[in-house]
Amino acid sequence: MKRRGWFVALIACGLSFVGMIDNAVAQSAMSSDVSAKIASAEKAISGARDAIAKGKELVALIPEDSAYMPEVTQMLQVAAASWKHAVESLNGAKESAGKVASAGNASLAADYALLARVNADVAISGASVVQIGLAYVEAVAREKVESLDLLRDAMQDALAGSSQVQFYYDKVKEVISEKYSK
Question: At the top level of CATH, which class does the domain 2-181 belong to?
Fold first, then answer.
C-alpha cells in the first residue's frame, strides 16, 4: 500500500512538473513574439526620432511669412502629440512585456503579452504619424509643394489608422480589466 501511495505521489509530481514546463515554454514563446513586436516599435520610434531631428533643421528653412506656415504648425502640433503618445505606448509595451515571464499562470501571461503587443502597435502607428507630419515639413522647406496633397492624404490615413489602433487597444484593455475585476 505504501508503494502505491509513493507511486501515485511520484506521478502527480511528474505531471505537475510537466505542466510547469509547458507553461514556461508557452511563456517563452509569448515573450519571443512580444520582443519582436517591441523591437519593431523601437525601430519605428527611432525613425520618428530621426525625422524630428531633421525636421528641427528644416523648419528654420521655411520663411515665417510662408503661405504654408499655418499648415506646417498644425502638422508639427499633431506630430508632437503623436510622438508623446507613441513613446508612452512603447513604455507601456515594455512594462507589460516585463510582466509576461513573471505571470503566475499562462492566462495572465497571455493577457500581458496581448497588452504589450497592442501597446507596441499604438507606438508604431503614432511614429508613422510623426514621420508623415515631418515629411510634410520637409516638402515645404524644400519647396516640393507638388507632393503636399499626397502628404495631406497620407496624414489623414495615418491619423485614421492610428485612431483605429488606439480604439483596439482601449477595447483590449477594457476586456482584460473586466476579466480580472470580477
Answer: mainly alpha
